[in-house]
Amino acid sequence: MSLEWEQLVIDAAQPGELGRWWAAALGWVVTFESDDEFEIRPSPDRLPGLVFVPVSDPRTVKNRLHLDFRPDNPALEVERMLALGARAVDIGQGPQPWTVLADPEGNEFCILGPREAPAGS
Hints:
- The protein is α/β, with parallel strands linked by helices.
- It has helices spanning 15-26, 74-84; strands at 7-12, 29-33, 38-41, 49-54, 67-69, 87-88, 98-102, 108-112.
């Protein structure tokens, strides 16, 4: 059996606006746009993508799924995301080697700190 991860679907009040924000944040390209969905990918032929679909009900609780990113320079990446319109959020994580941010619609994501070397290396 073959199984390929194609996309992650994200509910959004404004799918096009949120999708364009994520495309700018990730440096991805728009691969599909309609009234019912907005898709971005790393490149037109590369998976997985993110698909934004319209919902009318507001988000009221912490996301059950979120994206984690591990950049070369976490501090610079946090600054860049904040400059794009993300905001820092506290979800009760306390002091951690990562920063929790939220996109313009409040969806949480994390900028992780440097990866620790494996034990014994």
